[in-house]
Automatic annotation (TrEMBL):
Name assigned to this protein: Alpha/beta hydrolase
GO CC terms in record: membrane
Keyword set includes Hydrolase: yes
Source taxonomy: Bacteria, Bacillati, Actinomycetota, Actinomycetes, Kitasatosporales
Residue ranges annotated for the AB hydrolase-1 domain, each copy included: 22-248
Species, as recorded: Streptomyces inhibens
């Protein structure tokens, strides 16, 4: 099981395929396994790295560093240690925030960003809901997660997929709750006009966790940004409708490829 020691923690990752590099980041509490429907397709012509960020999946569960800055620092170290040549970074939910912040803070390291159902500024408008979520996680973690996660998915999603997501979150460390506790203080909108790497938002049409309007608002603030909408999908389109998602991701990657080759 490949792992990497960075910033006083240990990250599990998987690294397969050859070609332009892609770095996939999962959402809150899950793991790199959520990209299982993308691996067979994209490893055919890309180097694909998935990582369980700190506190999640098969990685360590440290008390400290469970912030956007902490995770971005881990990603910088990971890119360097694996010698990834300007990967495009694809991030689901809060993973999209990590990817965006990596583009803001270290644009020279990556070729582009693809946020998938990223929260953007939305939690900063939902302070009461965030406080209630954090209180629920502290009071009844299992019940709160089991009641919350089904709303991530569109109607008709297989119950087994929802149950698997719940299990992953409950298997992750409790210290990742700091991301939820501080989410209402994060708003990327002031930095987006100055983003120096290409960004393409992918969002589920039926996402009730993060409204589609969030992606459209963020894209409107970012020069050259685009939005692809996955019809019939909720917050996790890469799992719900992987064929549609994979096609949208390939289309999003096409204009980013020249940026990756320019410094090769």
């Amino acid at each position: 099981m490949p792992s990497l020691d960075v910033n006083d923690t240990t990250l599990h990752y998987e690294d397969e395929g050859a070609g332009p590099a892609l770095l996939f980041l999962h959402g809150w509490g899950t793991s790199g396994r959520t990209w299982g429907a993308q691996l067979p397709d994209f490893t055919r012509d890309h180097r694909v790295v998935t990582v369980d960020w700190r506190g999640c999946g098969r990685s360590a569960r440290p008390v400290r560093g469970n912030t956007i800055a902490g995770v971005v620092s881990d990603l910088v170290a990971l890119i360097g240690a694996l010698r990834l040549d300007r990967p495009v970074v694809i991030g689901s939910s809060i993973g999209g925030s990590f990817a965006t912040e990596l583009g803001v803070r270290r644009p020279e390291l990556i070729a582009g960003v693809v946020p998938v159902g990223a929260p953007g500024y939305w939690p900063s408008t939902q302070a009461r809901a965030q406080a209630e979520l954090v209180a629920g996680l502290r009071r009844d973690r299992a019940g709160t997660v089991a009641g919350w996660v089904p709303g991530w998915y569109a109607p008709g999603t297989a119950p087994a997929l929802i149950d698997w997501t719940v299990r992953q979150i409950l298997d992750s460390g409790v210290y990742i709750d700091e991301h939820q506790a501080t989410a209402d203080g994060y708003d990327p909108r002031p930095t987006l006009p100055g983003l120096q790497v290409p960004i393409h938002y992918i969002h589920g049409e039926l996402d009730t966790a993060i409204p589609l309007e969030v992606a459209r608002t963020c894209a409107a603030l970012t020069p050259g940004a685009a939005v692809s909408v996955i019809a019939g999908a909720g917050h996790m389109p890469h799992q719900e409708l992987p064929d549609r998602f994979n096609a949208a991701l390939r289309a999003a990657l096409t204009p980013m490829a020249p940026a990756a080759r320019a410094t090769a």
